Amino acid sequence: MFKRFCLAALTATGLLAAPKVIAVDIDGVIHPITVDLLAHALDQAASQNAAAVLLRLNTPGGLLDATRQMNEKIVASRVPVIAYVTPSGGRAASAGFFILEAADVAAMAPGTNTGASSPVALTGQMDETMRHKVENDASAWLRSTVEKRGRNATLAETTIRQASSFTEKEALDQHLIDLIASSEQKLFEALDGHQITRFDGRQEVLHVAGAEVVPYDLTLRERIISAIADPNVGFILLIVGALGLYVEFNSPGLILPGVAGGILLLMGVSSLAVLPLSWVGVSLLLLGATLFILEAHFASHGVLGSGGTVALVLGALMLIDGPPEMRIHLVTALSVSIPFALITMFLLSLAVRARRNKSLMGSEGLVNEIGEARTALAPAGKVFVHGEYWDAVSSTPVETGGEVRVVAIDGMKLKVEPKAAGLEIGPTAVPPR
User: Fold this and answer.
1) How far apart are CA 248 and CA 234, in angstroms?
2) What are the structural domains of the chain?
């Protein structure tokens, strides 16, 4: 007690620097980018000689492999890790419970809950044997962690076997967490001078009263990926980017759709690349794009286009091979896929119709054009067609000023005939040779 009083007095007078705590927020679905965030935060804490790392937890869960990697880094950390479920109304569910139990100190704010850690199948339903294998593996892993931290391993296992959940008071009363704190300041005050046992058995005393909380400095990549980490956002970016590139390829020279589409497409790929993708979902997306193209070439009366839309929606729903919290929502899939399908089919039909129309550029655009004879054609002379002067040969003599129709092109010379059948030839016309 006397030592704590002296440290507090020295800190208050400025003779001793306030302890530093590195805080990192884990407030969404747990996936590989979350592992990077935690690893870099632990490295920052070690390099700055921080007194502790504060994990602010508010997560519905996430990928089991990513959670295992995070736990490995927590138990190997040189700096003590304090997991704090916050704010009130938040939760550390499923994978979040594993992280909470792995920390040196497990704390919760009033009005929070934790638990419900039963593994779920990524796709379809697990058979009984596979379900037992997955549950046994997860249970053994959780027991080993909780026992090492000196908490209630038997009760913790029920979060897997029976999907049990606990309020903060239930978790404290049954020794799943260490304390309840209404704020970070109260948390640090309660933990100051508290002795903890690190995962390797070392004893360490926390000195965190009045600590300076320093938010973890995200790297540029982490800032970008964190902003678009939601698979729904990634899917929207992917579709809008693909549409922009298609518009650019369909109308070369617009530039802006191509540049913006390329950027958005890459951002969408970056967002989804950190998540486990289902090849079934990817295949359905490709099938949908193929059906849109076929709809523009064949008169299916909307059957192919409708099939493409269904394939796109199903592909979106099955694209992420992960728990329900990580998958693309039905509302997102419908609101993105249907407009994309309509716009794509419309642009494709315009492109196909344009290719079927007669060319208006180059020599092919002159056939059947109407021109004016600028000299008498007897049978050769000059004509003015399509805003240009051409050498021409007529099958029938035409006087100066007469209208002619282009029937063929021979190199740089046009073959023409009088515009109307039975065109009257004037008395000055030269008879054909």
Assistant:
1) 21
2) 2-221 (3.90.226.10), 228-356 (no CATH), 363-418 (2.40.50.140)
